[in-house]
Design goal:
Blueprint lengths: L2 H9 L8 H11 L3 E7 L26 H10 L3 E7 L20 H6 L5 H15 L8 E5 L17 H4 L1 H11 L4 E2 L22 E2 L2 E2 L3 E5 L16 H12 L4 E5 L10 H17 L6 E2 L9 E6 L5 E5 L6 E4 L6 E6 L8 E4 L2 E5 L11 E6 L1
Parallel strand pairs: 1-2, 2-3, 3-4, 7-8
Antiparallel strand pairs: 5-6, 9-10, 10-11, 11-16, 12-15, 13-16, 14-15
Helix pairs in contact: 2-3, 2-9, 8-9
Length: 376
């Protein structure tokens, strides 16, 4: 799709039902502690009143900045502020046409755009970053997206972009000067504060130079990042909770994407899942907040998390067993056990090195039951 074909979306952009206070309330009720909003995606369209381009929300029929009221609304609900910003920009006249550009297969377009200067684009990128970090108060997180310098040029198609193109060292210096306490992700090709595996199951605690690092999995409700009317591969509440728990059990966190409709509302399917996750979090959040990976080995089809402050161990039971749950190697280590949803006691005994929990026949009426273990 070229700029002319894309223009119809710019000309009709009017999220007239946009209510950031409603969004923020739903996020808080779902158990979220921070939000990350797209300020500009790869298409180059900016959701704030930037001075660097006319390709921005204030020039659409909507005519108003979307970012400032969102930041205000989410802060009012107690959430921290994060900005997603695309390093890529297919609209900018100096962004060299590479293999991820939507017009990389258009030979006439390629020939006409061989003299683009990525250093001029880098100036633009840095200027927009400065705006984002000086106009909206404290920004807690900055999620850049993405680098791909390992991909070689081919014919008229430019090489993939990376730290040299973004001038990442200079960019990071700017960020640290303007917002010294901010957390920056890993996608500038200069590792900073945390890494961001995307749309894949967590298999282990990510490392950088052989050491475990802070990490956040970014996932979607369905197969699409934006709103997609005809998308039907939506994850269930239970599956979404398992993604959250799996991440925390490996020392990570979850950034869960919500794609609003073109009128500025959340899809009913998204609302249903946010509400379902919030219902579970209301009863089980102490197995998530302040928790990380445990050194103990969880039973099959269960996940452990450990609270760093209280020292308690939490066993998330994905498949409810008949009468007993065997915790390998836990004999002599547990002083008290209870179901977290209602704080009802669970009796237990020992079998060699293992601890054997006595469970009710009927699974508790929650998406994923959790056993809270008070260790000796």
């Amino acid at each position: 799709m070229n700029d002319a074909q894309y223009q119809k979306y710019f000309d009709h952009f009017c999220p007239d039902l946009y209510d950031p206070a409603e969004w923020a309330a739903m996020a808080r009720a779902a158990g979220m502690k921070y939000f990350v909003i797209t300020t500009k995606h790869h298409d180059g369209f900016c959701l704030w009143d930037t001075d660097q381009t006319d390709y921005k929300v204030t020039n659409t029929p909507w005519g108003k900045d979307l970012i400032a009221p969102m930041v205000e609304a989410f802060r009012a609900e107690g959430l921290k502020v994060g900005f997603y910003h695309s390093l890529i920009d297919w609209h900018h006249p100096e962004f060299p046409v590479d293999m991820v550009h939507p017009q990389s297969g258009d030979e006439e377009f390629l020939k006409a755009n061989q003299n683009r200067d990525v250093s001029k684009y880098a100036e633009y990128l840095h200027a927009q970053t400065e705006e984002l970090l000086t106009r909206f108060g404290k920004v807690d997180m900055l999620f850049y997206d993405f680098s791909y310098s390992q991909r070689a040029a081919e014919g008229l198609v430019s090489h993939g972009k990376g730290k040299d193109d973004w001038q990442s060292e200079k960019l990071i210096e700017l960020i640290r000067r303007l917002q010294p306490e901010i957390m920056v992700n890993n996608r500038t090709e200069i590792f900073q504060d945390y890494t961001t595996p995307e749309q894949r199951p967590a298999k282990g605690w990510p490392e950088e130079d052989g050491k475990p690092v802070l990490w956040e999995a970014c996932q979607t409700f369905s197969g699409a990042w934006g709103y997609h009317r005809d998308e039907y591969t939506w994850k269930s509440v239970e599956m979404l909770l398992q993604i959250l728990i799996n991440g925390v059990a490996l020392g990570g966190n979850l950034l869960l994407n919500v794609g609003p409709t073109a009128r500025g509302t959340f899809d009913d399917r998204a609302k249903e899942r946010l509400a379902g996750m919030g219902e579970w979090m209301d009863l089980h959040n102490r197995s998530i907040y302040g928790c990380t990976k445990s050194d103990f080995t969880a039973p099959g089809d269960c996940r452990y998390t450990k609270n760093l402050e209280t020292g308690r161990l939490y066993c998330h039971v994905y498949t409810w067993p008949f009468r007993e749950l065997v915790l390998p190697g836990m004999a002599g280590k547990v002083g008290y056990a209870q179901l977290l949803n209602d704080a009802s006691e669970l009796q237990f005994g020992e079998d060699g090195e293992d601890l054997v929990l006595q469970l009710p026949i009927e699974k508790p009426g929650v998406a994923i039951p959790v056993v809270e273990l008070y260790l000796k």
